[in-house]
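Structure first, sequence second, as always.
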């Protein structure tokens, strides 16, 4: 769930600022796992 993604990423500091891309990649992967 989006809340689980937020929880997993909390506390991680990324200097590159790609949090949104990370969220999208995780959600895409999780969606594929559920479908397959």
């Amino acid at each position: 769930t989006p809340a689980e993604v937020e929880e997993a990423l909390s506390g991680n500091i990324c200097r590159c600022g790609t949090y949104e891309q990370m969220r999208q990649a995780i959600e895409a992967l999780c969606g594929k796992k559920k479908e397959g």
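Margin note: The mean pLDDT is 79.
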